[in-house]
Amino acid sequence: MLGVHTDDLSIAVTAFFMKATGLWTSKNRAEKWSRDVAAFYTIFTMSLFILLQSTAFIRGGLDFSAFLYSLVSILSVSDGLFKMCVVFVYKKDFLTLVVHLRRQFLESDYDTYERPMVDATKKTCAVFILLLTVFTNMTALSYIVVPLIVSIGRNETDRLLPFSLWEVPFSYTPYYEVTFFVEALLIYQSGICHFCFDNVLCIMNLHVTTQFRILQYRLSNLKSSTVLEDSDTRVPSAAENTHSLFKRYVQQHQTLIAFCNKLEEVFNLMVLSEMLTFSVVICLDGLQVIMATTVAGRRYTFLFFLMTTFVQLLMFTYSCDGLIQESLNVATAVYSSPWTYLPMNKHGKMLRNDVVMVIMRSRIPCCLTAKGFFPISLQTYTKVWSTAASYFTLLRQTMDELESS
To answer: Which end of the chain has the smaller Cβ count within 10 Å, N or C?
Structure first.
């Protein structure tokens, strides 16, 4: 099973945080029990976080700044809880994808040309996963540390919590310390769910993209030991051997398509949720960064939040776009294969017909969609930021009108 004991940094980091959510592979009953406890704890903490933030959202009243502060937290945590529930529903399929990733992609035998491609993909995954993990953890720590720093030297009645609660004396010792610790746990667990599922999706997308690239290399260099370089001298068995090898590569292509279809089945609801919230969250984060808040240092919290969203969206759309492009390029690789050098016997004709079929199938790209509404690509990245800019302009004008009235 995939665990943290691996030389792949992206897998190690992702497995560590996925175990904290309780949705990962297990070797025995004891690990399965610990995963179930972690999953229950994650769902409970995130639900409690949303409940407490909703009360602050309602109590915000006419304070528009507090209203927006609570709204961005509720949207982010709700999105994380939704992703957690989706993966929990498709837990069996999700774990099947994880096991397939290890056995078929990470532990397969590669030649001297293919191995550097896999290693480069591991490095790309490590860069994306580390960036998103670091920025998300910085955001969560900012939510926790900023109120703590601001409260230094203040009276007990004036101390701040990461997010406000009901009108009860939580600012007094020892209630303040206990409440602060509980809220810190809620925030950090919510932060883990905010990025860990995106990490898994990015790793799977990038590795299956590399598998399509490897398939292209194998198809374009399809040769049989019985095919002679002299095109005028062709051994009849060459077509049979080449066709047999070609069928193995077609089966690999079918396996990759099935893997992508399973990815779509498990993650399409999650993709739709993120597409619905990204623009709004980016807008609210940007607004919190530039507006004068009542709590010093809160700008830094939302600056980290904005950078987290930037990396998360880029990682998400980049990996999906690569999947589209490389699955389409299979058609070019098949056409470049040495099928023209084979004789027009039984197997030669069969191979040519199969080449046509593979080209026709490759014209339909593998992709992830927002529940079938639209495919995700790098164009989605620009559209999300454009939409967020429109929301930001409209909301900024609304705030200016409220301030002037």
So the answer is: C
